[in-house]
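Q: Two folds, back to back.
A: First:
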Amino acid sequence: MTEAEGPLAASTLSSETAIAPGTAHAPAPDASRRGSGRRWLIIGGIALVFVVIIGYVLGGAAAAGGPVARADSALHTAVSHNNDIVDSFSNDPFKGIDLTSDNPDIAAAKAAVATDKQKVVKWQAMVSSDRAALQNVRPELKRSVFTLPEQGTLDRHRQRVDAALSALSTAQKGIDMYTKEFAFVDPFLDAMAGFEAIGKAGTANDIAGVKAQLPGTGASMQKAIDLAQPPAVPAELAPALKGIQQVLTDLQRLVTAVEANDAAAAQKAGTALEADAAILDKYDWTAAETATKALFQPLIDAYNRDMKIAAGN
């Protein structure tokens, strides 16, 4: 090659390999791989976030599922006892006491009270069992980070559980009052049975028989008066109880006068007994029943209101 050919060839080579102005540079192989890696990293990060969110939601549902199921079970049982508990509020231990007739059936009244006692035992078992189940599940219905997605469901169930517990508290108040009423009714009916025996002995002119019944009858009557505490035992009964106790006092005076052959004292005691009977005849024995209904009506209303919420209505 000549000296002239050398520069020309170099110039030609340079023009062939030169890049025209405005033409983009082709990406280098390493840069392309780095860009692709970043895209997949971003996509993977987004996917991971979705997985975490889905796992959080599913985990929250799983964490809340157990308490909700247990709350549903406890609520279902409590609501299923609703009819029995409502019936308990219409129970009236005084309904078997009818002293307006000439021959009150004390034995029948005692049998009716015994039946009512068995019912109250049944109601108490229901209330105690339902309350324990609801109290056990309630702490599980609290807020937590893990159950946040299901917090609405947990809140609703907790409100229902609270309503059911309130209803059961009301039912317990009713049962407590019944228990106090029964405590009064038992000695009261014993006293009435004593009066029944006194009446039979008096009809037979059996002064000894009358005298024999007075101590036990008086003790039962005093016990009944001591236990006749409002509101469980209506205050409306107080005048009748005092009147009955006065009858016992005047009967004792009559027996003492007869045994002493004291005609004047016997006549005075007899007159007093007639006055006692007149007072008792004027007493409205339905007053106690009316007062009992008025006492329990607010409890009935509160129980029904709370139990409606507990049932999810």
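A: Second:
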Amino acid sequence: MEVEMVGQQQAASSLDRRQVVFLSALVVLFIGFFAPSFAFLVDRWSNSDEFSHGFLVPLVSLFLLWRKREVIRQTPLQVCWWGLPVLATGLLMQIASEWASVSFLMALAVPVALGGLAWYLVGTRMMRVVLFPYLFLYFAVPWPDFAIELLSVPLQHFSAAASTMLLGLVGVPIEREGVHMWTPRFDVEVAVPCSGIRSMVAILGIAALVGYLTQGRLWAKGVVFLSGIPITMVANVLRIAAIVVMGHYISQEFAMTFFHDYSSPFLFFISALSLLGVKKLVEKV
């Protein structure tokens, strides 16, 4: 009897070692195959103001997984073959991106392939448990340049028009032509970086996180997430209006060197408070 138990323990230990070796080999192969994508992501996160939050996204996903650790432990693992087509799609995207030099496709291939591999290894039930932490990884994927340019133009004009209207209502002598705004003492142009697109990329990730933590039905979570768009736009209008006020009543140097460069935390603070306010509101409905 003892011999049988020892034999079973040795077999289980051998099986565990095989699994560890198998998973280790998969990780090495995955990292090796997607090394160009990882290098691109790190470079884009390091040199882009719009996507510098990318370094934090995987850490947030890991934290969310840690919060669900008890549920994860209780959820059985099973192989699901449906993950293989998704994994194959990610691999093909990586190959196509290098062949066609499409950087967005290269970045997108990583989470797609990772999702397919995870789905195959852990099964559908586990993927349902970890679905949001996995989907949150997509906020680390840099948007294609054409999408940023496409959204920036209308955001520029909206920000300039709304800021001019707000300043006029509070008595600031302001005029505007397109994205160019000026007062008798100060003039400024709402460029692409000031359109709000940078903040929107990051704040949408925060809105998704706050929506996920919102208690209630799916519609309530969706409302919190979608509210990140108008909140970002309004916060950016307030920032631009504040810059004009500083430039007109204090000095152009103060407005453009100090307040302009260091007012981003103000924008995020206002947006975060607003998102929490929307969260509290929908939880009471």
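Q: And?
A: Residues 30 and 258 are 45 Å apart (CA to CA).
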